[in-house]
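Quick one:
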Amino acid sequence: MEKIEINGITVFIEEAERHLQINDIGEADLKAVWPVLQTRYPGFELDLCFRDMDEPADLLAEMGAAILDDCLKMVVKPDEFLPTNSTAALLAKADFAKFSAIHDKTHDPDFYWNSRRILDKWDIWRIFVMPEMAGYTMLDLRNINQSEIFCVHADNQPARAELLTAAINCAYEAGRDYVQYMVDRDNEAEYAAARAVGFQEVGFYRGYQVKSI
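Output:
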């Protein structure tokens, strides 16, 4: 993504994808930038996220924004980590086609990180899979201070804990200070697995999407 500034607000843009993203924006800034986006980027898709802040409900409704994610923000630090034995292994690029077939079936078509985009950004990801592709998770290594876990999919809590353990170990081996995981607020199984390996709840995250500005 290219990073641009509009009225002092950071906007991430992918021209070819006709996609915009704004992170952690307050109501006043959103009101300031929205008319500019309407003028410059009609027809673009816009993703917005709010971490630990109130969302401007009336403005989002006016924009036609629909909620995509309602998550608990969870963090585990090295001294809080409770690793389990893990049979999860790092996905080889040669096996990506097998992974992508599973990944794209488990997500809504509007999910940003579809398999094509993951492959385009292969270097930022470490993907861990259970034997026979019975589960997987993805670790984002873009940030030099912290890593974030995405998409923990498995049939049972022990397998989820194994995937989390493999990803967290990788993050700490790469020198990250802590690991973050946005857990679906309504997914009790995800929450239980996160707590089992030491994650602590520290806040919340809500994501919204405007399909066409």
